[in-house]
Every structure is written in C-alpha cells, then in structure tokens.
Design goal:
alpha+beta, Chitinase A, domain 3, 4-stranded antiparallel sheet, 14 helices, 11 strands, about 50% helix
Length: about 425
C-alpha cells in the first residue's frame, strides 16, 4: 500500500469530489447516522461516499455489491476515517497550507488546468474551493498518520529476506530459467526434399532413436551418423534454456537426465536430443525496467511561487521544443538541482526511486518527450525522458527488491491490524433514520 498522495490519485479526486457535490445537492433533508467519539457522521456523507465507491467499482469493471452491503461497508470506512482523523488531531499532526497548495496544484495540473480554472470547474459542480481543500487536507493527514503509526512498526530483517529468496528459488520452475546441457544427433533433411525422401530420413532417425533408447552409446551414434557438429559428440554445453531453440526446450523439459527426447522436427531436419545435465538457476534472476531522465528544477518559496515557477518552465519548454535551445543547455542555465552541471541528467533509475508525483509523470512520457511543468514537494520540474531499458539486477539489488516486496506486504497487514485497533478503541453510536 502506498500512503503518499500521488498525482494520479489526485486526478481521480477531482472527479470523485464532483460526484460528492452532486450528491450533496440532491440531498434535501439530512440526519445523523452515526457518532464517533461525539463527532457526527451524516446521511449526506454516506450518500456521497456511496456514489464515489460505486463509480470507482464501475470504472474498474468490478461487480457492485447490493446497496445494503455497500452502505454498511461505506459507513464502516467513514467511521474508521473519522476515528483516525481524531487520533491525528490528538497527536498534533497538522497539514500546513503549503502542503495543501501543492496537492491542489497537482490536482489542477493533472486536469490540465491552473488552480483558478480548477476552482471554477468545481464551483460549476457545486463544490467550493474550501471543500476541495478540506478533502485534500484530510487525505494528507491520514497519509501522514499512517506513515507515522504503521511504517514505524514494519521491519524486514536479513533473515526475512534470506527466507523469501530461498522460497522463491525453490519455486522457480520456469523451464527457460533452468540451465541444461543437451547433446544432439541430427538427421538433416535437404531444403527441397520431396515427401518420399522426408519419410525415408524420418524412418532413419526413428531407428537411431530406438538404438539410443536401447542403451547404445549416444556419443558413438553422434560421431557415426550426425549431420551436425560432431567435435564434442554433439554436446552444446551447460547454458540457460532460453539460449536454446524453443522447440528443443519444449521437447526436453519433461525428459529425465540421461534420457533421449522424441524426434524434434525443424527446418534443418530430425533431431535426437539427449539431456546430459539440468540445474536449477544458480541465482534468483530478476529484471526491471530502468528509466533515464533529465530535469530542470526550480525551487519554490517566498521569492518564487509555484505559479511563477510553472510559467517560467513553460516558457523554457517552448524554447526547447521550438529548437531555440536544447534541454541540457537550459538545465545548466536554470536548474537549481545538483544535476544541473550534467545538463539535468539523473542517470539510470529503478522503479520507486523518485517521489510519486515525479515518477508518475515520467513514466507517462515517451522517449524524448518533455513534460509540462510538474509540481512536487521539492519545487517545480520540467522532465524529459531520454531512455528506457530492461536490465538484470545484481544480487544486492535483488535483495533490495525482495525486501521492498516483503515490506509492502507487511504494511498491508500492519495497516489493517492498526486500523481495526483504532476503530475498536473509538466510541461509536449507530443511529436509526428518523421516521
């Protein structure tokens, strides 16, 4: 589970907030359906959440439960959120206006609007800018509370990683990941052979297969009859299965070491394949798609607002796109990041190395494409994706990847336990609707 409020989540928030506004406008009479530690939850809140969840399920093409089941689930989620927000207040967790500004700017950017345009659109849907900012503030508050309370509980030891690697290694039965050593005897078929000659050569190969399976020495048969390389008795040597022809792998994947496969027909002729050795992968192999990008960063603050930084970067982008300058030159002249001297080059990066609001935009770009200005917690960026590649991870990186996977899984479990505990400690009173 990612607790950070990413840019894509913010974009979805725009639509869902509009749905909520419509629900609130449609609700003529309101009443309290639950009280959480003296704080009320109203029927309009439940109706708005019902519409949001229903819309999300339909967008994901998932089945929508019955109204009663969905309402119970939505109410429980609202109770949990209210209890958590109250806990955050007790702990003194505060979200300043700058963090909400950043979230609102990202929401506007994902909607291809400026903040003024975003507020205007939401006003048409009946939702004030204050309501939007309140929703964003609550989302950020919950995120920070979860990071404080849940992240601190999750620790992944080296022993956990070792155990997971061993389990993955044992479960790695992909035939293409195994290492095998095959020996080949080939009965070649001329390119323009007629059906009669093909049948004759097949019969010859079948006879050799019978002899090999009857116990005759395979290496001797190869040296006497094979039309392929005989220098090493037809032996290919130990190699990963994905370096063999797919037909060879398929024919031998269920053949025991020391046994000979059925005849394999290829464009070269009829092959007899003996499995000399088979090994599990010597190490757990994993690959990831790495990304190389460069950026121009303008840091925001009292002297430079996010709006002014975005306008400046938009002008720089136009200058690059029109050919008046190039990205590297513009980065060296303008970027306030340590990468400026390298023309903004950030080097090769594995997934998850950048903050979500940066990485989500970067991943959406094509090679060579330049983004619009991107607001992050560090300032405002202009991003250009330069290359992508898929690489095999070294053993240290594999361990870190497994550690992160274990952490994500434990975070899910720890969060569920923690949220349940917060809910159980809260005083909750459910109320019947007025008659």
């Amino acid at each position: 589970m990612k607790f950070r409020l990413g840019a894509l989540a913010l974009a979805a928030t725009l639509w869902l907030l509009a749905v909520s506004a419509q629900a609130q406008k449609a609700e003529s009479a309101d009443f309290v359906v639950a009280v959480v530690n003296s704080e009320p939850i109203t029927n309009s809140e439940v109706r708005s959440a019902l519409l949001r969840v229903t819309a999300q399920l339909k967008a994901a093409e998932q089945p929508v439960p019955s109204l009663d089941d969905l309402r119970r689930g939505v109410l429980e989620r609202l109770i949990s959120d209210h209890a958590q927000l109250q806990l955050a207040a007790e702990y003194g967790i505060r979200v300043d206006d700058a963090a909400v500004d950043l979230a609102e700017q990202n929401l506007a950017r994902q909607s291809q609007l400026d903040v003024a345009g975003l507020r205007q659109r939401m006003a048409k849907d009946g939702l004030s800018s204050d309501a939007v900012r309140k929703q964003l503030r609550e989302q950020i508050t919950l995120s920070r509370l979860r990071e404080r309370e849940v992240d601190a509980r999750v620790r992944i030891s080296d022993t956990d990683v070792d155990r997971a690697l061993a389990e993955q290694q044992a479960a790695n039965t992909d035939p293409l990941a195994q290492e095998i050593n095959l020996a080949q005897l080939l009965v070649a078929v001329p390119e323009k052979a007629d059906a009669s000659l093909v049948a004759q050569l097949q019969a010859q190969a079948q006879a050799l297969l019978v002899r090999a399976r009857s116990g005759e020495d395979f290496a001797t048969l190869v040296r006497q009859y094979s039309d392929a390389d005989r220098s090493k008795a037809g032996e290919f040597g130990l190699r990963r299965a994905d370096r063999y022809a797919p037909a060879f792998v398929q024919a031998t994947q269920n053949v025991a070491v020391g046994a000979v496969s059925d005849l394999v027909r290829t464009g070269a002729g009829f092959h007899l394949l003996k499995v000399l050795e088979r090994r599990a992968p010597s190490s757990l192999s994993k690959s990831v798609q790495q990304t190389r990008a460069r950026h121009i960063l303008l840091r925001t603050g009292a002297e430079l607002s996010a709006f002014a930084a975005s306008a400046k970067l938009a002008a720089i982008r136009q200058s690059i796109v029109s050919g008046k300058t190039d990205f590297a030159t513009a980065a060296r002249a303008n970027s306030q990041d340590g990468s400026a001297a390298q023309g903004g080059d950030l080097g090769w990066a594995n997934p998850g190395m950048y903050v979500p609001e940066f990485e989500e935009v970067m991943n959406s770009l094509k090679e060579g494409e330049i983004s619009q200005p991107v607001v992050s917690r560090f300032g405002v960026h202009l991003i250009q994706l330069t290359e992508r590649r898929r690489v095999e991870l070294n053993p240290r990186d594999v361990r870190e990847l497994v550690r992160n996977q274990l952490r994500e899984a434990k975070l899910e479990e720890a969060y569920a336990t923690w949220a349940r505990d917060v809910r159980e400690r809260a005083y909750v009173e459910l109320r019947e609707p007025p008659q």
